[in-house]
Design brief:
By secondary structure, the chain is α/β, with parallel strands linked by helices. The protein has 6 helices and 7 strands, in the order βαβαβαβαβαββα. The protein has a 7-stranded mixed β-sheet. The protein binds glycinamide ribonucleotide. The site of glycinamide ribonucleotide (GAR) has 15 residues, from α1 and β5.
């Protein structure tokens, strides 16, 4: 069975949705590692509860970003990781990982890309008055939320309740990410 690493910086609800799909027998690969770049992030607690090995490391602890990524690359190789899935990892992927993992890094973003890139996509779209919201999963390149699109999901929303909207988007992410990982893994 192929093995994936999930990179996250925050809450980790997508991380948990992927591991839950695996535990239900609905994922065709094993979530073998969680990488977190923020000490104290809630995803670390989720990983421990779900018995997924976790590496917590920050680029600041290394000479430069390349050294940080070389450290991660070594761990990923040691653990035979086939695919990297970014799930709320709020950092651009650098040359070392892009070279090491080529077209085997994917990301989830809470908007219909290429609209509303960045860290506040849902709020930005809501403030703009968007009427159709969605989620995108794409291959990762060196740019922010850039790279070829793999899958998207969308729904109309004309309400005014931001929290309701946010939770609908996260629910869609949690359904779409495991399905998309299955598709990518079966083509590796
Ligand atoms: C998710 O909504 C994900 O799409 C977004 O961060 C959130 C992480 O939530 N990613 C980006 O905005 C990437 N630009 P989670 O930690 O609960 O999975």
């Amino acid at each position: 069975m192929k093995r994936i690493a999930i990179f996250a910086s925050g809450s980790g609800s997508n991380f948990e949705a992927i591991v839950d799909a695996y535990n239900r027998g609905e994922l065709n690969c094993e979530p073998a590692l969680c990488v977190c770049d923020r000490k104290g992030a809630y995803v670390i607690e989720r990983a421990r509860k779900l018995n997924v090995p976790v590496i917590v490391a920050h680029p600041r602890d290394f000479e430069d970003k390349a050294a940080y990524e070389r450290f991660l690359l070594e761990k990923l190789m040691e653990l035979d990781i086939d695919l990297i899935c970014l799930a709320g990892y709020m950092r651009l992927i650098g040359e070392v990982l892009l070279e090491g993992y080529g077209n085997r890094i994917i990301n989830i973003h809470p908007s219909l890309l290429p609209a509303f890139k960045g860290a506040h996509a849902i709020k930005d779209a809501f403030d703009y008055g968007v009427k159709v919201y969605g989620v995108t999963i794409h291959f990762v390149d060196e740019t922010l939320d850039g790279g070829k699109i793999i899958s998207q999901g969308a729904f109309p929303y004309e309400g005014t309740d931001f929290e309701e909207l946010e939770s609908r988007i996260h629910k869609l992410e949690h359904q779409l990410y495991p399905k998309t990982i299955n598709k990518i893994i079966s083509n590796l």
